[in-house]
Amino acid sequence: MKGFLLLTLSALFCWVSADIRCHHCNKVPVLGCIDRKSCLLEQGQQCVTTNVYLGKMWLYSKLRCGTREEPCMEAFNETIHKLGLNYNTTCCTKDSCNSLAPRATPGLALVFLTSFAGLGFWLLH
């Protein structure tokens, strides 16, 4: 009886874990997610979220499924010194566990909109 129960639970676990989906999105301030979709997670892989910051200001996020070619490798405060960018990469294995990333602050959205408007006026003159 214990063997049958173990076999049943193992089969159920394999069936459930085969359908894990991750968010797949490139997210930028003001515009939000570009090309939002979901991806089916390969067995043995993890969902990936990479957030890119300039100092403490969020610039960009990439959400995806890990693959054999590009598996998830967690990293916190990984820095590219020439550009001053910080990367945080997290991994997870539950259905839709990689969030849709941080939202831009209203002040940051205003700065971007004002900058684009100023650039537009400058180009027109």
From TrEMBL:
<dbReference type="GO" id="GO:0009897">
    <property type="term" value="C:external side of plasma membrane"/>
</dbReference>
<dbReference type="InterPro" id="IPR039237">
    <property type="entry name" value="LY6G6C"/>
</dbReference>
<protein>
    <submittedName>
        <fullName>Lymphocyte antigen 6 complex locus protein G6c</fullName>
    </submittedName>
</protein>
<feature type="signal peptide">
    <location>
        <begin position="1"/>
        <end position="18"/>
    </location>
</feature>
<dbReference type="InterPro" id="IPR016054">
    <property type="entry name" value="LY6_UPA_recep-like"/>
</dbReference>
<dbReference type="InterPro" id="IPR045860">
    <property type="entry name" value="Snake_toxin-like_sf"/>
</dbReference>
<feature type="domain" description="UPAR/Ly6">
    <location>
        <begin position="19"/>
        <end position="99"/>
    </location>
</feature>
<dbReference type="GO" id="GO:0032991">
    <property type="term" value="C:protein-containing complex"/>
</dbReference>
<dbReference type="Pfam" id="PF00021">
    <property type="entry name" value="UPAR_LY6"/>
</dbReference>
<keyword id="KW-0732">Signal</keyword>
